[in-house]
């Protein structure tokens, strides 16, 4: 009953024949079952060439993975060195700020007055040049 309701004749699935992956592969019905048996025609079996090709691709992928690993190690070492340099620079800046604060406390803070006077003088000079060259 199940075999007579199927379309496609000798195939257990009506649409199985169009889905063959390559020449030489075919499906056939198994008695009263929903299984498919696969038969490989040895005339079209060039699996050795495919295996050789796949081995070549695996070797290429292995080489790429090794290069990626080498680059990752190089980048990690570079970042570690950069981090150490930044730690040293941060410590140097901290020491210099500490020394500057000690000098400001020791000698007073007249430098702020000098900076403000310089800014006012610079503003006045720019203002005068704009008045002179406006004409």
TrEMBL record:
The keyword Oxidoreductase does not apply. InterPro entries: T_SNARE_dom. The chain crosses the membrane at residues 111-129. GO terms for cellular component: endoplasmic reticulum membrane; Golgi membrane. Residues 41-103 form the T-SNARE coiled-coil homology domain. Coiled coil: none annotated. It comes from the Eukaryota. SUPFAM superfamilies: SNARE fusion complex (SSF58038). It is found in: Endoplasmic reticulum membrane; Golgi apparatus membrane. The keyword Coiled coil applies. It is a single-pass type IV membrane protein. GO terms for biological process: protein transport. Keywords: Coiled coil, Endoplasmic reticulum, Golgi apparatus, Membrane, Protein transport, Transmembrane, Transmembrane helix, Transport. Its main location: endoplasmic reticulum. Belongs to the BET1 family. PANTHER family: GOLGI SNARE BET1-RELATED. Required for vesicular transport from the ER to the Golgi complex. Functions as a SNARE associated with ER-derived vesicles. This is Bet1-like protein. It comes from Tripterygium wilfordii (Thunder God vine).
């Amino acid at each position: 009953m199940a075999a007579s309701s199927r379309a496609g004749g000798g195939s257990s699935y009506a649409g199985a024949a169009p889905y063959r992956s390559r020449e030489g592969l075919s499906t056939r019905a198994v008695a009263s079952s929903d299984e498919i048996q696969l038969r490989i025609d040895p005339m079209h079996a060039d699996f050795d060439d495919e295996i050789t090709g796949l081995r070549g691709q695996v070797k290429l992928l292995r080489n790429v993975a090794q290069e990626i690993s080498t680059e990752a190690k190089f980048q990690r070492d570079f970042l570690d060195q950069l981090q150490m340099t930044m730690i040293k620079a941060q410590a140097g800046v901290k020491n210099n700020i500490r020394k500057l604060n000690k000098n400001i406390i020791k000698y007073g803070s007249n430098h702020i007055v000098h900076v403000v006077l310089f800014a006012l003088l610079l503003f006045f000079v720019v203002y005068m040049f704009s008045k002179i060259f406006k004409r």
